[in-house]
Write a structure and sequence with these properties.
With 352 residues, this protein is of the alpha/beta class. The chain has helices spanning 13-19, 39-46, 64-67, 88-94, 104-122, 125-133, 167-176, 192-198, 205-211, 231-234, 254-262, 313-325, 339-346, and strands at 3-8, 23-26, 51-54, 75-78, 97-99, 159-163, 182-186, 201-202, 214-217, 242-245, 268-271, 292-294. The protein has 2 domains: 3-103 and 306-346, Rossmann fold, CATH 3.40.50.720; 105-294, NAD(P)-binding Rossmann-like Domain (Rossmann fold, 3-Layer(aba) Sandwich), CATH 3.40.50.720. The chain has 13 helices and 12 strands. The protein has a 7-stranded parallel sheet with strand order 8-7-6-9-10-11-12, with helices on both faces. A 5-stranded parallel sheet has the order 2-1-3-4-5, with helices on both faces.
Length: 352
């Protein structure tokens, strides 16, 4: 019987894989927000597995050592979009498929949550609530920001800068379109027509940082994007600007961001992701009060969306596992270069 190790399963993944005729071995609950080094235990649990599947696992990514624990391993299936916690190069070299799950229920939820964070910061929602609960009332320093430009009096509105105009960044631009703001974006990897499609002005990164009142980050994490925003980048932003990151914590130098917030280089920030998760108890970001809005990497967790439910990432990952174990190519293969080698090793060999 085929064997699947689910290292951090979500939704109905385990049931679907088991119903498909596969023996399921479950990893620890909570491995999606792990502490310490779990690699030795994961190597033990992955031994002889035909498939690995799950959601993000930060401190113990899927390394070459974990992959080579089983000579029979065919696929690593993620129920999330990101694969930065997998050694994809090693998987490709060995002949293992890596699939991800760019489901709208997931990335659409991230876009909606990003809008929520931006509005909470600009409209001072938390501060006004706290003031009233403390017995206060209207104060001048609790004024919010008017977002859209106005024809009646020539108010120009604010500028929203989007770093990364993929699925999430594009949806953010669409959600803000009715607000009548200027929206600019930096993304050197998408064609020009995408900017036209979203009604967004393409700019270089320096221009975006210098002209934006809100900077929101939507990039994948790789060697190029790791710490792409650090001291030099924050120094180019308006001192009144708001910074938001709902992509990957590693794209931002957290120490540099905390320093920029403390010295007023950046006005405020909203973060759903962090370099190390959970965020440490002594992180300076915890001590900045209303300068930061912090969320525990669950912006995509919504009723009616997220990783669970019909058409979700957990379903896609389970389907990918079952297809690969039947010797067929699943959808959403991330490392497409591996396909010829994979077909040579496993094509047409049904284990179910």
């Amino acid at each position: 019987m085929a064997k699947a190790f689910l290292f951090a399963p979500t939704g109905d993944m385990a049931r679907l894989v088991e119903d498909g005729g596969c023996e399921v071995l479950l990893g620890k609950a909570g491995w999606h927000t792990p502490q310490g080094n779990n690699e030795p235990e994961m190597i033990r649990m992955a031994a002889d597995a035909d498939a690995l599947a799950g959601t993000s696992i930060r401190s113990s990514p899927i390394t070459r050592n974990i992959m080579t624990a089983s000579r029979a391993l065919r696929i690593i299936a993620k129920s999330t979009v990101g694969v930065d916690d997998i050694d994809v190069d090693s998987a490709t070299e060995i002949g293992i498929l890596v699939t991800h799950a760019p489901t709208e229920s997931n990335w659409g939820a991230v876009a909606e949550g990003t809008v929520g964070i931006i509005l909470a910061l600009l409209k001072r929602v938390r501060e006004r609530d706290a003031q009233i609960k403390a017995g206060g009332w209207r104060e001048e320093d609790l004024q919010g920001t008017y977002l859209g430009r106005r024809l009646s009096d020539g108010y120009p509105g604010i500028t929203l800068g989007i770093i990364g105009l993929g699925r999430i960044g594009g949806r953010v631009s669409q959600l803000f379109r009715p607000w009548n703001m200027r929206v600019i974006a930096y993304d050197p990897y998408i064609p020009d027509y995408r900017f036209l499609e979203f009604g967004v002005e393409p700019v270089d990164l320096d221009t975006l940082l210098q002209e934006s009142d809100v900077v929101t980050v939507h990039v994948v994490l790789n060697k190029e994007t790791r710490h792409m925003l650090s001291t030099a980048e924050f120094s180019k932003m308006k001192r009144s600007a708001v910074f938001v990151n709902t992509s990957r914590g590693g794209a931002v130098d957290e120490k540099a961001l905390a320093a920029a917030l403390e010295n007023g280089t950046v006005h405020a920030a909203g973060l759903d992701v962090f370099e190390d998760e959970p965020i440490s108890r002594d992180s300076p970001l915890r001590k900045l009060g209303d300068k930061v809005l912090l969320s525990p990497h669950m912006i995509s967790a919504n009723r009616g969306g997220g990783l669970g439910g019909l058409g979700s990432g957990s379903v896609w990952a389970a389907q990918a596992v079952l297809k690969a174990l039947q010797g067929e190519l699943p959808d959403h293969v991330f490392n497409a270069d591996v396909i010829p080698l994979w077909l040579e090793r496993f094509g047409g060999k049904n284990l179910l």
